[in-house]
Amino acid sequence: MEEEIQVPxxxxxxxxxFLRRECPTCEQEFKWFNHAAGDDDAEPTSQYFCxxxxxAASLDSWWTPAxxxxxxxxxxxxxxxxxxxxxxxxxxxxxxxxxxxxxSLSLNIETPDPLIEPDDMVIVEPPCxxxxxxxxxxxxTERVFCLICGSPFTT
Length: 155
Ligand SMILES: [Zn+2]
Ligand SMILES: [Zn+2]
Fold this sequence. Notes:
By secondary structure, the protein is of the alpha+beta class.
């Protein structure tokens, strides 16, 4: 199979538009504001700083385990469908043979339940980058690092 299977995975935001993230360094969770595509307020950057421990990591290293599991699960469901479609296509050209796709061809990958994003944590706004607000656990508001430049600030 040369074809690449693109799977749109939608990770839910909380009601303020924040996306839950997990730091690959300290493994603690926070949230960053999810700018819509093309939003001029979105700060162009090649890495983000963890607001909790201040260590930087590349843009795509912030998925929580639940999000990864959900992503893989969703991809699995799409893969399952692609396999079934491929079988159906393969049998189409065979004269006189009728092929009914059935569940025995399934890879039995279950599509996961949608993720639920609770409205927890407190919103903090870095004075240096107010266009990139964050949500951190209550106990971290004393010292937060800016997502974009890593400068510490208190709220
Ligand atoms: Zn961290
Ligand atoms: Zn900043």
